[in-house]
Amino acid sequence: AQSVTQLGSHVSVSEGALVLLRCNYSSSVPPYLFWYVQYPNQGLQLLLKYTSAATLVKGINGFEAEFKKSETSFHLTKPSAHMSDAAEYFCAVTPNRGGATNKLIFGTGTLLAVQP
Amino acid sequence: KAGVTQTPRYLIKTRGQQVTLSCSPISGHRSVSWYQQTPGQGLQFLFEYFSETQRNKGNFPGRFSGRQFSNSRSEMNVSTLELGDSALYLCASRKDRYTEAFFGQGTRLTVV
Fold this sequence. Notes:
The complex is a heterodimer of chains A (116) and B (112). Chain A is mostly beta strands and 116 residues long. Chain A has strands spanning 3-5, 10-14, 19-21, 24-26, 32-38, 44-50, 56-58, 64-68, 73-78, 87-94, 105-106, 110-115. The termini of chain A are far apart. Chain B is mostly beta strands. The termini of chain B are far apart. In chain B, the strands form 2 sheets. In chain B, strands 2, 4, 5, 6, 9, 10 and 11 form a 7-stranded mixed sheet that branches. In chain B, 38% of the residues are buried. At the A-B interface, strand 5, strand 6 and strand 11 of A face strand 4, strand 5, strand 9 and strand 10 of B.
């Protein structure tokens, strides 16, 4: 079954430092990949998505992610962290196989803390 | 363009009761999915509806059910509530698998 692994349930960075949040998927057929952010007591907001176009995907708020098929990875990065980036981040996939489904399979999430 | 609307935002119920949650998707989106979010289990897929038909179901007991109406609005129902059903229930609407899912703000259910 398709799965998503996010390494590091908690990541702490200093303001202005690089943010790197890791995501690996398990699938022989590259799925559609998404990163979402969640602020406390809110729903999920899309940061960026990969749907088999360019492998380097740029999203909102300065985030970007690179799809690497050989590593089955889709890590999220931001060159310079801002205090407002503190939130929980989820990597998610939608299987790209035969059969109709729009469901998302989520990783366990990474809580990002930004220190002043 | 209005987003995904979930009602109510907060609910407190007693064990054994039943509850119905509502979700209005973005106009034009025929796919609605429901997710349960808890600190211990994370985000788990409950079910997906497309054009009034349940297309996928997650690994949840039969106490969890849902439906979708002809206007794409969806409801989910949980019967015989248990303490472990306390969670944030999120609804997402989507145009198709190639595009992103848009989430509502969720319904926070507390079972006491």
